[in-house]
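Hi R.,

Here's the chain you asked about this morning:
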Amino acid sequence: MQDLDISTIIFAIVAIFVVFKLRSVLGVRSGPPRPPVDPALPRASSELQNPPAGGNVVSLGRAGSAAARPDDDAAAVERWKGFAEPGSEVAAGFDAIAAADRGFAPDRFLSGARAAYEMVIGAFAAADLPTLRRLLAPDVLANFDSAIRARLAAGQTMTTTLVSIDAADFVEARLTGSVATVSVRFAAKLATATRDASGAVVEGSASEVADHLDVWTFSRDVRSHDPNWLLAATQTVQ
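And the predicted structure, written out as tokens:
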């Protein structure tokens, strides 16, 4: 046997000592090797690993949606508070419209609808077709235009005073394809008079205030870059 170099012997002794210490600190793991963890994969929450008492299962909703959280139901109840009852068809319509049009907000919509109500009534009485063209859908514009032309052909004029809008409430909301429609019921007080060429009142009264209850439906294609809603239908409620 060849003589061993003293440095080789010392190195071997040190290596054996290090291996022994590592085994004593880390121990030896038995069983099959563990798979590596992919950091891109989501971790299961403790809520799903440990189902609630009583055997109830946490609902995951539609495929691809996030897991339900305790505050989701409360947020859904508060979302349309003051404008639609939770679980109502109007609330469901708001949900659908807001999902397609992130800028939709019922408070701003109602404020704009009130302004449109006043503008349309005033423009119709004044035979102001340019203003009506900006506010009305084609079918409604055609009806208003026909009525205005008939009035002018008869030599008549109209005056309308909006005394007050007493209420404006949502009665319907829905999304059909890409077209959103929202209906608002207006309760208003108006004084309307139609006069002939001589100035005599032939219909209504300029001094008597009458209650009016109407449902106006506004529509908008949510794919359009134009944020404006147009009056698509009107209905008088008896």
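The CA atoms of residues 166 and 175 lie 28 Å apart.

Let me know if you need anything else.
M.
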